[in-house]
Write a structure and sequence with these properties.
The structure is a single chain. This protein has about 160 residues and is mostly helical. The protein contains five helices and three strands, in the order E-E-E-H-H-H-H-H. Strand 2 and strand 3 form a beta hairpin. The longest helix has 20 residues.
Length: about 160
């Protein structure tokens, strides 16, 4: 009889429909990450690799999620309950005027530090005060920190 895995280790089994090996594990928001392999061993190795990437914050579950979708979700559902109304209004203005027009169309997983640095340089050339750019940087850093820790997806974006 096969030994049962502990909670959180994921599972690997052979699908009856196409005989491929399938592995999955549950991520922080309750959704599943899936991997496939031609053999049980291959599927198990892919599963372990995906779990390591997820724990290190490298695996983004919502692959099609844009920066706009994530930032909107983060501000409204994650950060808003923990801040004052005045702070929320400042953050909303920063998102609407600076971050969403410049970065909102990009896929969250494809966002690079060069693109972010380019945004800061562009805003400096537009004449924004260094303190304002610091506010933009602080907000984006806080949101992306949350994404790396595992709060990367919202239910609508999967």
């Amino acid at each position: 009889m096969a030994k049962r895995r502990r909670k959180g280790e994921g599972s690997v089994y052979q699908r009856k429909s196409d005989k491929r090996w399938f592995g999955s594990f549950i991520v922080v928001n309750g959704s599943h990450k899936h991997v496939y392999g031609n053999t049980c061993k291959e599927a198990f190795e892919k599963l372990r690799k995906a779990q390591r990437e997820y724990q290190q914050g490298m695996l983004v579950v919502g692959l099609q999620q844009t920066v706009k979708q994530y930032l909107e979700h983060w501000l409204e559902n994650v950060h808003k309950p923990t801040i004052r109304v005045g702070s929320y209004l400042v953050y909303r203005t920063i998102l609407n005027n600076h971050l969403l027009p410049a970065l909102g169309h990009m896929k969250l997983q494809k966002l690079t530090s060069e693109q972010v640095e380019s945004l800061y340089t562009k805003k400096l050339k537009e004449g924004l005060a260094p303190k304002t750019i610091g506010g933009i940087q602080g907000l984006l850093h806080k949101a992306l920190d949350n994404a790396v820790r595992g709060g990367t997806t919202c239910a609508k974006c999967q």
